[in-house]
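Please check this record.
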Amino acid sequence: MEGFKLSLLLWVGMGSFLGGVVRFLVFQYVQTIGARSFPWGTMAVNMLGSLMVGFLLALAEKRLVQEEMRFFLMVGLLGGFTTFSAFSAETYLMLSRGEFAKACLYVGLSMVLGPALALAGYRLMSS
């Protein structure tokens, strides 16, 4: 791949490792203090990740984050922490460009197809 930097792959890998560990810790902590009949741990991780990606998008837009740090934080750390943050960022960017119909389609398809495919995968493997 032209222009591919191996160092970026290492930054993403390190961030993903840390993000996964932090996700586990936050999930465990929140789930133990909340009602176990609701996935509070996952909700906390997804909402915290969305807040963090908003902060990072603003910093990146102002060019206050170098390329390596942006990949480490956004793709690696937040990607390992929660992919919901990427979903939130992509939706925000579409809305900020005035692509309302596209954003609604993306959100709608993600919310319907994601659970439907999880159900299909489960049924395929359990039959």
The longest helix spans residues 6-33. The mean pLDDT is 91. The two ends are 41 Å apart (CA to CA).
